[in-house]
Amino acid sequence: MVLDTLTKALASGSVRVVDLTHTLDPDFPVIVLPAEFGQCARFRMDEVSAYDHRGPAWKWHNISMSEHTGTHFDAPIHWVTGRDVPNGATDAIDPVAFVGPVCVIDCSAGAAADEDFTLEPTHIEEWEARHGPIPAGAWVLMRTDWSHRQGAEYLNLRKDGAHSPGPSPAAVRALLDRGIIGFGSECVGTDAGQAAHFDPPYPAHAMLHGAGKYGLQCLRNLDALPPTGAVLICPPLKIRGGTGSPLRVLALVEASA
């Protein structure tokens, strides 16, 4: 009965589907690491045939990219702290983790005023005072409207590295204390651009993945979601031993929300 009600709500439009995913194309920015490290590959698509001598009745492409290109999922084994997490690869994660309630913390005003804005425990507490406690098993998404940027402005690289918003170590601890299942960002990574200087460095990666939690990055349209009440759907590709995967992230939202 519950699923029947849901399908009827989708058909009637009383529940709408919001796409939180950027389009994959060769120009979409990817994270840039220091030159001494291996680099993330951009998306590439090569035509195999197009209703021609290579295949008269079909069109298709070969594609290649990093697991962490475009809107993508981070599995625990992506980070050294999560390398020994049981079932920590994309093919081994319990699929129940890919569907769940979502809480959206609006940090757009702070990020507009400060490109290095950090989500702090006080922001979480203020959000909970208005919307209620973050439930265990929820996905928490940090809305910054960073996804409205394009090209070089999206990565926002300077001589001292990237400048973009993200959570502080204390905020990550606070979210883990609430039992979240994962954290998502509109930026190219779940961590702030200057998170190498935090203690610990890159806390969203180090602490979340070490605790067996998941990450989503390069999200968009978070301004179309309510603070609570939406349902997130985010299954990555089932890659054997995968550390992550591009994916299409969707949210189910009541039309009145």
Brief digest:
The protein is α/β, with parallel strands linked by helices and 257 residues long. It has one domain (15-28, 66-254): Glucose Oxidase, domain 1, CATH 3.50.30.50. It has helices spanning 2-12, 108-113, 121-131, 151-155, 169-177, 203-210; strands spanning 15-19, 44-52, 55-64, 72-74, 99-106, 118-119, 139-143, 157-158, 161-162, 166-167, 182-185, 214-217, 230-233, 244-246, 250-254.
Q: Which characteristics define this entry?
A:
nine-stranded mixed beta sheet, two-stranded antiparallel ribbon, globular, 257 residues, single chain, Glucose Oxidase, domain 1, alpha/beta
Could you tell me the mean pLDDT? 97
What is the distance, rounded to the nearest whole angstrom, between the alpha carbons of the first and last residues?
A: 23 Å
Main sheet properties:
9 strands, mixed
| CATH domain fold name | Glucose Oxidase, domain 1
Kindly report the name of the CATH homologous superfamily.
Putative cyclase
Q: Give the total of beta strands.
A: 15
Structural class call reads alpha/beta
* Order of H and E elements: HEEEEEHEHEHEEEHEHEEEE
- As a percent range, the share of strand residues is 25-35%
How many distinct domains? Answer: 1
Number of helices: 6
CATH class division? Alpha Beta
Spatial sequence of strands, sheet with the most strands? 1-15-13-5-7-11-12-4-14
| CATH-derived architecture | 3-Layer(bba) Sandwich
Gyration radius, in Å? 19 Å
Helix content: 10-25%
Outline? globular
Low-confidence stretches: none
Structure description:
With 257 residues, the chain is α/β, with parallel strands linked by helices. It has one domain: 3-Layer(bba) Sandwich (Glucose Oxidase, domain 1). Helix content is 19%, strand content 26%. The chain has six helices and 15 strands. The strands form four sheets. Strands 1-15-13-5-7-11-12-4-14 form a nine-stranded mixed sheet. Strands 2-3 form a two-stranded antiparallel ribbon. Strand 11, helix 6 and strand 12 form a beta-alpha-beta unit. It is globular, with a radius of gyration of 19 Å. The model has no long low-confidence stretch (mean pLDDT 97).
